[in-house]
Design a protein that fits this description.
Blueprint: H1 14-38, H2 45-68, H3 77-105
Length: 106
Amino acid sequence: MPESNDLDIFFTGFDKMTHLGFFYVLTILLFYGKIKYQHNFSFRSLTIFKVILINAIIGGGIELLQWKVFTYRSAEWWDFGCDMLGALMGVFSYILLHLSNYNEKV
């Protein structure tokens, strides 16, 4: 009888969806913090750039740590790609929310 692996309960690609979801939530929380800190909902390209940069540094740092420090883990470009895709989905959500709030005030 073959040994069952604990990871067999997850479907193929579960890891990638987890990366995407976590970075989507991280991006939303970064924008939420920015809105709360500034007490307004201004739309600035510099803020979007900073949020994407923060996500890239965190995602890249995690993959570098998995590659060099935690060698029992594997570093993958696909994981970093899913991190960035989640961040871009969060930026898209922020832009849509901004446009809907802007249209209500006009």
